[in-house]
Amino acid sequence: MGGTFALQAACKLEGIHAAAPFYGDIPDEFTLQNMKCPVIFISGTKDQWINTDKVGELERIAKANTLPIESVKYEADHAFFNDTRPEVYDETAAKDAWAKVVAFFNEKL
């Protein structure tokens, strides 16, 4: 849910300078066209909710509209960053994703 809100906020709110949504639902193209800041979008290829088709659509829209979105995918499930859910937590992917997000924020903020 947080990833969905982060991606929506990047498109709708002034004053945000960078966003790092993790496996959030993808807004429609009209909403994405209003993106106000750079985004690093983190997802898992095993995710059945924010699946590869949805992420592919985000990437297509980003490319078609020259949006500042970097898409990073891991061979992991939804919520792979949540270490309180051992059934989906992926320590390797989580550590790498966190390093990428910190580097992204250091560059953009």
Characterization of the model:
The protein is α+β, with helices and mostly antiparallel strands and 109 residues long. The chain has a single domain (2-108), classed as 3-Layer(aba) Sandwich (Rossmann fold). Helices cover 42% and strands 11% of the residues. The protein is built from four helices and two strands, in the order H-H-E-H-E-H. The protein has helices at 2-12, 29-32, 52-64, 91-108, and strands at residues 39-44, 69-74. A two-stranded parallel sheet has the order 1-2. The radius of gyration is 13 Å and the shape is globular. The chain starts with a helix and ends with a helix.
Give the key terms:
109 residues, alpha+beta, Rossmann fold, two-stranded parallel ribbon, 4 helices, 2 strands, 42% helix, 11% strand, globular
